[in-house]
Amino acid sequence: MNNFLVLVKKEMKESARNGKWIWLPVVLMIIGISQPLTSYYMPQILEAAGNLPDGAVIDIPTPTGEEVLIGVLSQYGTIGTLLFVLAMMGVIAQERQNGSLTLVMVRPVRAFQYIGSKFTAQLAILLVSLVASYMLTWYYTNLLFSSVSWTLMLSSLVVYSLWVVFIVAVTILAGTLLKSNGGIAGVSVLFLAVISLLTTLFPKYMEWSPGNIRGQASILLLEGEWVRSVWIVVGSTVGLSILFFLLAVFMFKRFESYHG
């Protein structure tokens, strides 16, 4: 346990040193607040852009607060997913390349502790960034549009956070299998994209898919109830995340013993 805490602390310091604690929350907050701001000022933006015929009237229906937050979740699902993968792709590969992984593993450190420390530290950074961005967006949404209760906001945030857990598990697993940052990022993004695509193409057979997380978080915002479909997706996402984490531990142990 002591080794695990030491490794987590090392990861946190390393992330602070490379600025991840700063740039990731800032970028996510910009992505988040851009949704309510652009939705609110869209008529003025279109009018300023010009090229409209004389006498044209811009009449855009005002979205509800829940619809604005659903749009934000969509932004997180595309740009946010890419950002999360890019922020994590080198956590294992970089230590392999600079030789520091060898120095860590010659000590009495187990594979479970090493992978667990990576998982915990990176998940903490990503979740803090997501929470800061989503709560700031919620504040501006309540300010500019109809009010969304904090319970609805919190429920949708908790459910969507599981997608972040899934991303961390997938990227960590890719990091144990591949050595290059580009390969890790490519495989992780491709896998997550395929999951989302299959979920869209075969909704009847992919009802359980983690690719449905955003949709279920949206349902919570609109209906305010934890319906059966939400629990199914939550259960499968948690289960697959645990499976991928354990697989990452196994593959890391096998890889290091082989190359050791």
Describe what this molecule looks like in 3D:
- The protein has about 260 residues and is mostly helical.
- It has one domain.
- It is built from ten helices and no strands.
- The protein has helices at about 1-15, 20-50, 65-90, 95-100, 100-105, 110-145, 150-175, 180-200, 215-225, 230-260.
- Helix 6 (about 110-145) runs antiparallel to helix 10 (about 230-260) and helix 7 packs parallel to helix 10.
- The longest helix has about 35 residues, at about 110-145.
- The radius of gyration is 21 Å and the shape is globular.
- The two termini are about 25 Å apart.
- The model has no long low-confidence stretch (mean pLDDT about 90).
Summarize the topology.
Layout: H1 2-17, H2 20-49, H3 65-88, H4 93-98, H5 100-105, H6 111-144, H7 150-177, H8 181-201, H9 213-223, H10 228-259
Helix pairs in contact: 1-6, 2-3, 2-6, 3-6, 3-7, 3-9, 6-7, 6-10, 7-8, 7-9, 7-10, 9-10
Transmembrane segments: 21-42, 73-93, 114-140, 152-175, 182-202, 230-252
Organism: Halalkalibacter alkaliphilus
Keywords: Membrane, Transmembrane, Transmembrane helix
**Computed Rg:** 21 Å
**Alpha carbon gap, first and last residue:** 24 Å
Name the structural class: mainly alpha
> Uncertain segments of ≥5 residues (pLDDT<50)?
none
Content of β-strand:
under 5%
Number of helices: 10
Mean pLDDT: 89
| Overall tally of domains | 1
Overall shape: globular
Which oligomeric state applies? single chain
Mind summarizing the main beta sheet?
none
Range of helix content: over 70%
**Structure summary, number of beta strands:** 0
**SSE series:** HHHHHHHHHH
